[in-house]
Amino acid sequence: MSLEPELPVTDAELDARFDPVFTRIAASAVEREQQRQLAFEPVAWLREAGFGALRVPRRHGGLGASLPQLLRLLVRLGEADSNLPQILRAHFGFVEGRLAARDEASQDYWFAKVAAGELWGAAMAERTDSTGNTVSLTPTGAEDGEADFRLDGQKYYCTGTLYADWVAAVAADGDDFVSLAVPTRAPGVEVVDDWDGFGQRLTGSGTTRFSAVPVPARHVLRRFAKGELRAESYLTAFYQAVHLATLAGIARAVLADAVAFVQGRTRAFGVPGQSRPADDPLVQRVIGRLSSLAFAAQAQVTAVGHSLQGVYEAGQAGEAVEQLYTDAEIHAYQAQQIVLAQVLEASTLLFEVGGASATSSQRRFDRHWRNARTLASHNPAIYREQALGNYYLNGISPTAAWRARQAEAEQGHGAGDEASAV
What we know:
The protein has 13 helices and eight strands. With 422 residues, it is α+β, with helices and mostly antiparallel strands. The protein has three domains: 11-119, Butyryl-Coa Dehydrogenase, subunit A, domain 1 (Orthogonal Bundle), CATH 1.10.540.10; 136-226, Butyryl-CoA Dehydrogenase, subunit A, domain 2 (Beta Barrel), CATH 2.40.110; 235-419, Up-down Bundle (Butyryl-CoA Dehydrogenase, subunit A, domain 3). Strand 2 and strand 3 (146-155) form a beta hairpin. The two termini are 22 Å apart.
């Protein structure tokens, strides 16, 4: 199908639209953290502003933003409140999956819902004694020539689902895996706020239960053999890039908090009487370091965004080859190794500018380290570092290594969010 190219949305247009929303979110972020007040209001503000439709093409009612533009805005959102990009991570993954599939009929159906403000969460991972998928999809009969289904089982780490209209899930149907979407308010769906992590406490990353949930055939998005679970796509790199953008946002928030804290102080440790810590060369040095860490983290996110945009455009043109997917994944993993350390350093260095008063629970500066450490624990970096070494030493891509492990496992299982190109 031939379509006229769409005029790209500009950064200035996006900033004019979303800057006021980010400012509003930031103003109440500490209060939410202090009270563990779930972020329903900020999610509603973003929904009303059309944030969820950033990547939806304009012809489908969205804003048509590029991947670098999306990541830049997620950095800004992460600066305002780092819970918010993670809440929306599965949503943007769902949208990206529809874009990558290049199925116009599917896009017509689903993007109309996204453009109307509907949001997606995820139900992919499980807490069991081995990696696997115990959620089942069972045919229930035929209507108008199409089989319908029922969904049963339980998932955990269901980030964003507490706030969402839909949940994207992976289930087993006999010997196949299927990806599907069901409304969070459908009969038999129960979303539980039982996430107990010490960081990212407002992300709603708890349990979702399915009990005889009706699933129309139209809501089954993709079917694939278990051994083919990890289809080639840039979704693995994309999911990691969202985490990296969130971390870069935390680094910016650390810098902003440090500057505001220092500028408001009139005394320094070990200095008699009043003094201006802002004039202290040692404090200036800390602020300078924080500014460099924030800049470097965002620069790496930008680089990953351009890598993703390249493979996305090649895919849309039908010209993507496996090496492009590998390159995007490698770039995301390389950035991960550096960004994690940079942001964790920044979130600790923040406390060097203020002594004991910086530890006041009224300021909640500790949230930056807790949130960064929690994000860094997703898909642990040590495994990514090994994958990079294996690639450069032996020419084995992360996908090829995964396929080899899958073959060794006889009946491969595992439906983590990065393998769920829904």
